[in-house]
Amino acid sequence: MLRKKTGQFVHFLIPTGTMLTASVACCILASPALAEDSQGDDNGYNPPKYQALRFNEDWSTMPQNYGDWSDRIKKINLDDNGENWLSMGGQVRVRGELWRGFGFNDNNDDEFALFRFFGWMDLHLGENIRIFIQPESTHATNRDLPGGKRAALDVDSADLLDAFAEFSFDLSDEYQFSVRGGRQELLFGKQRLISPLDWSNNRRTFDGFSATFKPTDGNWKLDAFLSQFVQSDKYGFDKTNDNVTFYGAYFNEKVGEDQKYDVDAYLLGLHTDMTIGDSDRYTVGARMAGPIAEGFSFDAEGAYQFGSSNGLDIGAWMFAGDLNYIFADYDAKPKITLGVDLASGDDDPTDTDNGTFNQLFPLGHAYLGYIDVVGRQNIMDYRASASFWPAPKKLLVKADVHFFERMESQDALYNAGGGVVRAGAAGTDESVGTEIDLTAKYLLDRHTVIEGGYSHFFAGDFLDDAPPSDDIDFVWLQYQFTF
Questions:
Q1: Contact 209, 179 (CB under 8 A)
Q2: pLDDT (tens digit, 0 to 9) for every residue of the chain, 483 residues total?
């Protein structure tokens, strides 16, 4: 049963710090001068869309002297025939956050700003060799919440997010192969298990090798990787964490008429050296998404984990599914989604089995609420969302509601980073609570996105049983300029 707190909604409406909007406003005022419209001078060439992994953008066919200033640095020929060329870009992001009751404790109130700067260079030497480097710098104003300025999430004064060399070859007229070595971000599928975690001020990256095998003309590819996690250091160079090795193979194919369906299959391995014993966890899973009938579509993913951890036998699973309906006849494209996220927990901490699902390296934020107090471990999330475009292709408004329960009462509540929020015990209530997320996104131009939102978490009976159990309010405003 959920508690109601009189006055809680009013409390967040009176922010004490104008810091939330000041830095964002400065960037907004500057953007019209920076983001002039692209003036193409070729026969209908359209530049590629900016991607979450910037090294996946293909600028090889960019005409010379095309578009605005940001386009003209995307393909700089280094010789007369254009075989050797350089591409450059970057991103500036500013976000203000306001918290009330962080960690379910009404003593944890704060406002602060996060700043992030990326720049990248992509050097192509002929058709087969490229070198990609992406430095980063992330900063924060005083953050007085538990953890302070966190090395893993908030601050990394100067470092390398990506730095790799790639070699690509045509194995025959039918198949292509590429191999990449060095520091690199990983992103697969819908990012439920493997994501660079773009919401965080510090993105997630790895040191190691990856390879891609795909047909010259086809709709499938096979990726494989062997890597070690990179540990963030706020004021020093980030180093490889030799205790965490992550590897696997990920297959994707577009199938069906007009390739309407997206199909994934994967096998992942995570080896962790711990003082209490090693852990070897294997994840096998699959995903499928596509249309069902007019207006209806679905996305479903399931995975099973096995192996051993500190002498315990692993047996865990997860399932996530969405059913969507879009009112396509309306310009605002209203969309309704019903979804579920299930992840197993451990029903008996005293036996020789470990049933808690390990969420690996996810973007949990996108699926389990913006407050990030719930992760994909020992959880049942039943959710509904509605969205529409009041200004088509410009302004998107969305509302989400989550109903959270623990899968097993004896297992803990875990947050988006996999940390324990509250330990479980036999007989404790499974109800974690309800979260409401209201968000809006405005696409000012192809470079500039302004976003903001408000979230409220109603603490449930499980948290009431082990105070503090205050409700949480979260307000945020973000400006992002990508070039």
A1: yes
A2: 444 343 433 333 333 344 444 444 444 444 444 444 444 445 688 899 999 999 999 999 999 889 899 999 999 999 999 999 999 999 999 999 999 999 999 999 999 999 999 999 999 999 999 999 999 999 999 999 999 999 999 999 999 999 999 999 999 989 999 999 999 999 999 999 999 999 999 999 999 999 999 999 889 999 999 999 999 999 999 999 999 999 999 999 999 888 899 999 999 999 999 877 789 999 999 999 999 999 999 999 999 999 999 889 999 999 999 999 999 999 999 999 999 999 999 999 999 999 999 999 999 889 999 999 999 999 999 999 999 999 999 999 999 999 999 999 999 999 999 999 999 999 999 999 999 999 999 999 999 999 999 999 999 999 999 899 999 999 999 999 999
CATH class given for the domain over 8-482: mainly beta
Q: Smallest Cα–Cα separation from 285: which of 362, 180, 179, 353?
A: 362
* Reported pTM: 0.90
In sequence order, the β-bridge partners of residue 323 are 298, 338
* Distance separating alpha carbons of residues 411 and 395, to the nearest angstrom: 41
Segment holding 34, helix H or strand E = helix 19-34
- For residues 269 and 246, is the Cβ–Cβ distance under 8 A? yes
The set of residues, in sequence order, having a beta carbon less than 8 Å from that of 233 and lying 6+ positions away, is 151, 156, 159, 239
Backbone region of residue 435 per phi and psi (left: phi > 0; alpha: psi in -120 to 50; beta: other values): beta
Contact (Cβ atoms closer than 8 angstroms) between residue 482 and residue 447: yes
Give the separation between CA 403 and CA 380, rounded to whole angstroms.
8
List, in sequence order, every residue forming a beta bridge with 111; answer none if it has no partner. Answer: 98
Number of other CB atoms surrounding residue 103 within 10 Å? 17
Q: Is the dihedral of CA 387, 451, 482, 203 positive or negative?
A: negative
In the chain, domain spans? 8-482
